[in-house]
């Protein structure tokens, strides 16, 4: 799930030339062989083994850690939940600035990696054998955690995007099949509205990652950045693809065909339950989140299905991703080789992966799971027994080619969010929003010491 609060902005200092992270001997390491962390949430199975401190927030992390510790005598994971997303990132940033207090291994969302990589806060795992597990992941999943030959994290879960829809709403208003293109989406939205039906979807400002994914699907390349060339970045947010996507959704809002509510709120969930929205553009992790929020548990049970994400150009289909997390080793790790072993091994065993996907905690990126008969042919209760993995999500994941993220994802998301608010309020157009966004992000990048190409 992706929610990037603006409050995180103040925690990042990206000025080039600063190396905010400590070395092995600066006293910053929390675990490894230098010292044994004692604030473990979990039980340590082998007391005399070295410990690696891990920060992670997966809901089933307790089981995952127990699985790892029970299978290893040479290392033990000492796990703590330092917060989900923003709270954890803030604590990590504080530790980077202080040059102490970071964990050995940290769970990070893929689009946040570069912001920490540029501060030398993460370790290149390639020298520690990361490429030995590369075969376990798709091209796109691996690209999201890599910079050239360097590998900065080991993927666990992802968010291939698709279109969730209400079968009862579609049936009531004569929609015989889900839209295959965004043009069809708009046409069906108009048909439902004309018949007095609910809004077809939602253009919430608080999910800028979704809008960015749809921009990329249209052909936009918002950023070109290579960590090997830290100073230079290409920013392209005023291109025609970005303008088209923002205009498209702005027009749907203007015509009353989609809502403009923030997602993940109580009101939004109530709307999902009550059939206020005919569709939900989301990721493979959505069924688990929705079920946990009470969707599909009452009168709306069995009313949902999923289809491939509509395409801008059906002749050239593009798969995009929303969310996904990985395990990285921090530069403060006392024993980086041992920490790398944990990063590569945790949430990688069969029992943990099975628990993760069966409880819908994760959409696994491990190809061993994605190709297993049990996962491929699983009938998803939330979708009324539909084989959603086989029909939609696995093809979408395998077709995903990865994305290039900027070193200031949080700032970018905040500015895009502000532009969407203005679009939804009728205070700007999609085209103007793209022009303004280009100016804002370019100015910010230059203020941080980047040369914008």
TrEMBL record:
InterPro entries associated with the record: Bact_solute-bd_prot1 (IPR050490), SBP (IPR006059)
Pfam families: SBP_bac_1
Keywords: Signal
Annotated signal sequence range: 1-20
Entry-linked PROSITE patterns: PROKAR_LIPOPROTEIN
SUPFAM superfamilies: Periplasmic binding protein-like II
Gene3D superfamilies assigned: Periplasmic binding protein-like II
Protein's UniProt keywords contain Signal: yes
Name of this protein: Extracellular solute-binding protein
Species of the source: Paractinoplanes pyxinae
Source organism phylogeny: Bacteria, Bacillati, Actinomycetota, Actinomycetes, Micromonosporales
């Amino acid at each position: 799930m992706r929610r990037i609060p603006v409050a995180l902005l103040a925690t990042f200092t990206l000025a080039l030339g600063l190396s905010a992270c400590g070395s092995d001997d600066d006293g910053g390491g929390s675990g490894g062989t230098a010292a044994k962390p004692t604030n473990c949430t979990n039980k340590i199975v082998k007391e005399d083994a070295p410990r690696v401190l891990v920060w992670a927030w997966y809901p089933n992390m307790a089981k995952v850690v127990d699985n790892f510790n029970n299978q290893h005598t040479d290392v033990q994971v000492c796990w703590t939940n330092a917060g989900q997303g923003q709270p954890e990132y803030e604590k990590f940033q504080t530790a980077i600035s202080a040059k102490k207090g970071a964990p050995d291994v940290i769970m990070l969302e893929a689009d946040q990696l570069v912001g920490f990589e540029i501060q030398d806060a993460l370790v290149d795992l390639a020298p520690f054998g990361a490429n030995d597990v590369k075969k376990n992941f798709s091209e796109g999943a691996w690209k999201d955690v890599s910079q050239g030959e360097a590998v900065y994290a080991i993927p666990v879960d992802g968010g291939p995007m698709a279109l969730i829809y209400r079968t009862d709403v579609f049936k009531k208003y004569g929609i015989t099949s889900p839209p295959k293109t965004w043009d069809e989406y708009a046409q069906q939205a108009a048909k439902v509205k004309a018949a007095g039906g609910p809004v077809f979807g939602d253009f919430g400002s608080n999910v800028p990652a979704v809008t960015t994914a749809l921009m990329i699907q249209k052909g936009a390349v918002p950023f070109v950045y290579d960590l090997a060339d830290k100073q230079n970045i290409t920013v392209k947010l005023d291109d025609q693809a970005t303008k088209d996507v923002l205009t498209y959704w702005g027009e749907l809002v203007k015509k009353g065909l989609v809502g403009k509510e923030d997602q993940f709120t109580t009101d939004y969930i109530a709307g999902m339950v009550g059939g206020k929205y005919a569709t939900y553009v989301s990721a493979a992790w959505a069924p688990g989140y929705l079920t946990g929020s009470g969707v599909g548990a009452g009168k709306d049970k069995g009313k949902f299905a999923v289809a491939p994400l509509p395409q801008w150009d059906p002749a050239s289909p593009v798969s995009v991703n929303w969310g996904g997390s990985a395990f990285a080793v921090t530069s403060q790790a006392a024993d980086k080789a041992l920490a790398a072993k944990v990063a590569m091994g945790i949430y990688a065993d069969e029992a943990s992966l099975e628990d993760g996907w069966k409880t819908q905690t994760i959409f696994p990126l491990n190809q061993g799971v994605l190709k297993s008969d049990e996962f491929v042919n699983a009938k998803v209760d939330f979708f009324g027994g539909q084989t959603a993995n086989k029909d939609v999500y696995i093809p979408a994941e395998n077709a995903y080619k990865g994305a290039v993220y900027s070193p200031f994802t949080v700032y970018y998301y905040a500015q895009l969010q502000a532009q969407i608010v203005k679009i939804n309020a009728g205070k700007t157009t999609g085209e103007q929003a793209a022009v303004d966004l280009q100016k804002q992000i370019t100015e910010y990048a230059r203020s941080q010491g980047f040369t914008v190409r």
